[in-house]
Amino acid sequence: MRKxxxxxxxxxxxxxxxxxxxxxxxAIGGFLLASGSGAAAPPNPSAIVLKASQVGAGYKSAVIPxxxxxxxxxxxxxxxxxxxxxxxxxxxxxEGYLKAAGQPAVSNEVVVYRSGGAAAALSELQAxxxxxxxxxxxxxxxxxxxxxxxxxxxxxxxxxxxxxVALRAQLNGVVNGARRSATSFIVYEFKxxxxxxxxxxxxxxxxxxxxxxxxxxAQQAAANLG
Length: 226
Description:
Layout: H1 14-20, H2 52-55, E1 60-63, E2 89-98, E3 105-113, H3 117-131, E4 148-154, E5 164-175, E6 178-191, E7 194-201, H4 207-225
Antiparallel strand pairs: 1-2, 2-3, 3-7, 4-5, 5-6, 6-7
């Protein structure tokens, strides 16, 4: 799905998309890094983020609103926990990938952390998966104030040797008296001080097709991480 972040979720801001019933396309803004200099320049997110061609034939990419910002943007909100590693982010870039209705939609968020930040984020995610509560919770972003319950199921991303956390997330909530639910897929991958997260949304496709699509995107993202 985040604060002033887009309607999806860089982290999963999909909670908002799912529960609010917003179209994934709304999270894909118009098509649109600042590079630093110095002795060991940090990785450039734009060199790591997925290219549309890596996601799939016919897919278009766009930087989501606020996708280049760190301040005021949330990266991790799995199970709507608060993540201390958020304060260790140095740079981030998030792009959305869309083809057409009936085809899975994907978002890729690349985050560069200060030394030790990526390891801290991985540890926090592993703890969140282990202790994710079944009771409805609200999130840290402006669009996540509808109580949502999370049900997480680990999935496997074959041929990826990097540390990762991959999940199928079933979110349930009540909006205007109507019960809403949606299934999304999330893969967080880590290399050095960088995290690349892939978020997948059904967008009218089946859950099995979306999972396979997200796994493929995550494999490509791992290759970009090196």
